[in-house]
């Protein structure tokens, strides 16, 4: 069927979604979708089939109503090229990357000219949405799609309970660099420092440890791509280094000069 | 009464605790203690009397069973000097600072030679323990006190539901530099970057924002003293800067060189 033929019906129960890439996020996402659609999964190398899904060939996946690429940001072009010959006329191609401008360009460059393309970014993963995806932000960026197709799929994701936010790929990348981007960067910095749990951990320190553990559970490739393929993360890292330097200077490095006395102010910290 | 006279009784209901310094933490701590003891408070400048407590003169405060200094780390010496003439023979002097070696030295230097001294660090504040102090870590460091007095007060704080951890001032300072110290430093760095809430905030980013907001609610003096009066925080900041530099180098600064392709790995992050 062609999408949106019967908008009054919402989305067809028999809707079929193809997933390319069943890595850590792909398998989590495929299983989440399998509660709402028939999900066919393909992974180039041998991997267990995600719960609730059906392993399929690339051509079977290409015949689904929508195909969602769950591969590395830096691999979207290659994955689109491999999938292109198998895409049926009505198939909608989507990615799920943490960067949007670069993968959107890659999909446009390598998908058949008539294929509709929507870039998406589920702002969560198996750690943060282990209890369920409902309520988590889901960025939705039509790249080359009719409004009819776009609103049809926007409704589908909203009906999963996701907080669907429509923005352009560039709007996403700027916002993500200073939210998800800085979180993953600091998480890796803390891991490099080898921080560990402590009997005297404050609530705030426990939150830093959680950020470190959660970001380091994701593939290192995600960290590298997030930092290198989003053109705004360089500015984020430079601003982080500038602010850190400003505070180091304010404190005089590691000196122990006494600050001004303040008998009235309280001391124990959160 | 002299402390520990009747250890079998635990602590007397009529126990009187004096609080010097009713700033943000001091007033929170005084009110928390007022549910378990009679609390007299003194603040050098005019401040509202904390709920459940009684405003008192420095000499009335000095006549309590225990006097807890809730002033800036850099002000402990001065506060002890002012209080010294008013301390009765049985009074036990305690501080509540986020650094322990420096305030312990200052109390020993300025308290009467016979005064028993115990350094403490409640590892929480009005933000992190707004729902109650029970279960939060409480560092307990006898500096110049009989085991009888020490165990008496250790029991008192344990009976408040606190997780009492006995360690030396130096053991505390090393551990605190790499837990509370790094948390407050990063919280101020993030505030200097002017991070803000976002519609596409991930769970991890929300935790960073909470760390920023919580640490910046504490007095700036606490931040400065934490970083300058704990002799281990300099090493913490240097290790943080080293790890940050190592990751910047790994990423090639703000370049956008593509990482190696990884078609199989998943991408959307926590």
Structural overview:
2 copies of one chain form a homodimer. Chain A contains 9 helices and 8 strands. The first copy, chain A, has helices spanning 24-33, 58-62, 76-83, 101-110, 147-158, 169-192, 203-217, 220-228, 233-250; strands at 16-20, 38-42, 54-55, 66-69, 92-95, 116-122, 137-144, 163-166. In chain A, strands 3-2-1-4-5-6-7-8 form an 8-stranded mixed sheet, sandwiched between helices. In chain A, strand 7, helix 5 (147-158) and strand 8 (163-166) form a beta-alpha-beta unit. Chain A is globular, with a radius of gyration of 22 Å. Residues 1-12 and 253-267 of chain A have low confidence and may be disordered. Chains A and B meet through helix 1, helix 6, helix 7, helix 8 and helix 9 of A and helix 1, helix 6, helix 7, helix 8 and helix 9 of B.
Helix/strand/pairing category of chain A: alpha/beta
What is the β-strand count of chain A?
8
Adjacency order of strands in the biggest sheet of chain A: 3-2-1-4-5-6-7-8
Looking at the structure, what is the overall shape of chain A? globular
**Cα Rg of chain A:** 22 Å
- N-end to C-end Cα span of chain A: 58 Å
Strand portion of chain A: 5-15%
Say what oligomer this is.
homodimer
The amount of helix of chain A comes to 40-55%
Helix-strand blueprint:
The structure is a homodimer of 270-residue chains.
Chain A: E1 16-20, H1 24-33, E2 38-42, E3 54-55, H2 58-62, E4 66-69, H3 76-83, E5 92-95, H4 101-110, E6 116-122, E7 137-144, H5 147-158, E8 163-166, H6 169-192, H7 203-217, H8 220-228, H9 233-250
Parallel strand pairs in A: 1-2, 1-4, 2-3, 4-5, 5-6, 7-8
Antiparallel strand pairs in A: 6-7
Helix pairs in contact in A: 3-4, 6-7, 6-9
């Amino acid at each position: 069927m062609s999408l949106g033929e019967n908008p009054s019906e919402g989305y067809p129960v028999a809707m079929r979604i193809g997933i390319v890439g069943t890595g850590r996020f792909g398998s989590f996402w495929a299983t989440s979708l399998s509660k709402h659609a028939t999900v066919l999964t393909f992974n180039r190398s041998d991997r267990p089939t995600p719960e609730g899904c059906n392993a399929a060939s690339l051509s079977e996946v290409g015949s689904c109503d929508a195909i969602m690429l769950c591969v590395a940001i830096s691999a979207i072009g290659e994955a689109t090229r491999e999938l292109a010959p198998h895409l049926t006329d009505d198939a909608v191609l989507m990615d799920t990357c943490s960067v949007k401008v670069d993968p959107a360009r890659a999909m446009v460059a390598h998908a058949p000219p008539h294929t509709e393309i929507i870039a998406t970014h589920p702002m969560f993963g198996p750690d943060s949405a282990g209890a369920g995806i409902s309520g988590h932000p889901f960025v939705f960026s039509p790249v080359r799609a009719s409004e009819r197709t776009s609103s049809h799929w926007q409704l589908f994701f909203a009906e999963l309970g996701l907080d669907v936010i429509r923005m352009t790929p560039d709007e996403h990348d700027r916002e993500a660099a200073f939210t998800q981007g800085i979180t993953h960067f600091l998480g890796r910095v803390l891991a490099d420092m080898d921080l560990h749990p402590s009997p005297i951990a404050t609530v705030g320190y426990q939150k830093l440890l959680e950020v470190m553990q959660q970001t380091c559970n994701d593939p290192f490739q995600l960290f590298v791509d997030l930092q290198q393929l989003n053109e705004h993360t360089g500015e984020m890292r430079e601003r982080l280094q500038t602010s850190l330097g400003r505070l180091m200077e304010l404190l005089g490095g590691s000196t122990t000069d006494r600050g001004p006395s303040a008998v009235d102010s309280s001391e124990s910290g959160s």
